[in-house]
Amino acid sequence: MRSPLTTGEPDFWPHKLFPGRLFVDGGPITSKSDINDINRDKKGKSFGRGHTQGLYRYNVAAFAIHLQYGHDRSLTTFGMSKPLLETPPERLEEVRQEELRIKQETGQP
What we know:
Blueprint: E1 22-24, E2 27-29, H1 35-41, E3 48-49, E4 55-60, E5 63-69, E6 75-81, H2 89-106
Antiparallel strand pairs: 1-2, 3-4, 4-5, 5-6
């Protein structure tokens, strides 16, 4: 999928576009799909906002599904990847304590 406003094709562009129909948890996804329509039509948990504007993410089984929307609000990218392992809470606390210790030693507020 790509935005109709995209000009040219990047070097990494697939040689052949995906010819089939795409569904996530029973909900159809096309280049014209709005995130609200996708969340309404699919089963299960909704896509959540990603770390940048226009990026949405949904975890299913051992995979993360990504949708990215362009400035024209059309769906430009669909991707799947294996998510990074989540950091255990005890490790997060260790990191937080280490950051506090460093701030105290350097006199940072």
